[in-house]
Amino acid sequence: MKETIIRGECVRGHKIRITREHHYTCPDCGSNLDILYDYSLLKKKVSRSLFRKSGEFSIFRYLEFFPFRFRKEDYSRLQIGWTPLYHASRLASLLHLPSLYIKDDSRQPSGSLKDRAGIMALIHCLETGPKMIIAASTGNAASSLACLSAGLGTGNAVFVPKNIPRAKLAQLRVYGSRVIMVNGNYDSAYELSVRATEKFGWYNRNTGFNPFTREGKKTVSYEIIEQLNWSVPDYIFVPVGDGNIISGVWKGLKDFYYAGLIRKLPRLVAVQSSGSAAVARAFLEKRGIRPVKAGTLADSISVDFPRDGDFALKAIIESDGLAVIVPDKEILQAQKLLACCQGIFIEPSGSAPLAGLMRLLKEKKISGKKSVVLLATGSGLKDIDAVLRGSGPLDRIEPDIREVERIFRKKTRSSDLFA
Ligand SMILES: Cc1ncc(COP(=O)(O)O)c(C=O)c1O
């Protein structure tokens, strides 16, 4: 990589120059960094038609909004980004909310939005030198890193908690990652990976710690705006664990706004499980982030201490947004609704936005006239145990046509679908 000047600012406002040697947290206060752009320059360089003309349907459509230059041909082996944005017509009529859309990021190479972040960190790693990249993860960031590293042939190791869902573990094994299962939770895996980075000089892709992950995640907002034909929705609902996705969503929207591509900004709604709600609680109680003892079946948003919590809070506040806390039961109901009403099977964490929307509609905090985008962040196939447990009995029969007749004569209540 040509040594480009990358400027950054930490959440407390310290400005720093990001270099090959120093690109993690703020040297002054240790808080997370955000990459800065010269929007007056970008305003002259980008236009709405530029992206269309690129003919590229992946995150590499947005090269002007990346902090460093690289040859995209070297890295575009897998299709990352440009996932579908569906008008959720059946759910829309059920909820009396005509303008309801679902951004389906389960359609990424490793099955989650994390691929947007993983590729940015991986490119930065390869362009700056280290031959080994590592991450601590509740599962998706790790399986993404394993998948993308396999595609590029890069050495990688992942630190995961012992309760990682089996399907995510299977992904790590099949992609050939070095899996380090830590006898503890996500937070202890995270701490250990940072210590390993310091000791062995490996490149670390951890959420929050590495500012380039946000630069990948922000592309989801560019796509939403383009796919809505440059109209800006009223609300975007985002599931929140560490808070890096929501801060990325906000970054992407601000990029387009300050580059003069859109004229208004949506309000962001942070959705958390009641079992892991450090960011939402801080927002609702108008205070700083305090760690919690997390426990939710939505494993991807189960964190004690949100690693990008300050930037997440900033995103909610700056967007004049909202935070909503939902119990796991409502998350599972939302998961079922997404699947049986729209044909989109999303893991519990990625279904939380629908649960949050339903709650806010019920509490009349959002009107049916608003346009809403739900971020569906990861595939339901990544964690099937909860679904199977909650699915009720199966029809088990002998191979006999009379048996088929018998079970179909039983009345099927349509309300069963929404139980
Ligand atoms: C599917 C899915 N949804 C939501 C999240 C939450 O993102 P963040 O931790 O950046 O808030 C994650 C993070 O792992 C995830 O994998």
> What is the typical, i.e. mean, pLDDT?
94
Low-pLDDT parts are 413-419
Count of distinct strands? 13
- Helix- and strand-based class? alpha/beta
Strand order of the largest sheet: 4-5-13-10-11-12
**Which architecture of the domain at 85-111 and 213-389 would the CATH scheme give at its second level?**
3-Layer(aba) Sandwich
Q: Count of helical segments?
A: 16
Bound molecules: pyridoxal-5'-phosphate
| CATH uppermost class of the domain at 85-111 and 213-389 | Alpha Beta
Reported by name, the CATH topology of the domain at 85-111 and 213-389 is Rossmann fold
Radius of gyration from CA coordinates: 21 Å
Cα separation of the termini: 54 Å
Percent helix among the residues? 25-40%
- Strand % is 5-15%
Oligomer: single chain
Listing every helix as H and every strand as E from the N terminus to the C terminus, the arrangement reads: EEEHHEHEHEHEHEHEHHEHEHHEHHEHH
- The shape is globular
Q: Biggest sheet, open or closed, and with what strands and sense? A: 6 strands, mixed
Characterize the structure shown.
The chain contains 16 helices and 13 strands. It has 419 residues and is of the alpha/beta class. It has a domain at 85-111 and 213-389: Rossmann fold (3-Layer(aba) Sandwich). The strands form 3 sheets. A 6-stranded mixed sheet has the order 4-5-13-10-11-12, with helices on both faces. It has a 4-stranded parallel sheet with strand order 8-7-6-9, with helices on both faces. β7, α6 (166-175) and β8 (178-182) form a beta-alpha-beta unit. Mean pLDDT is 94; it is low at 413-419. The structure holds pyridoxal-5'-phosphate (PLP). Pyridoxal-5'-phosphate is lined by residues 112, 114, 138, 140-141, 207, 239-245, 300-301, 347, 349-350, 377-378.
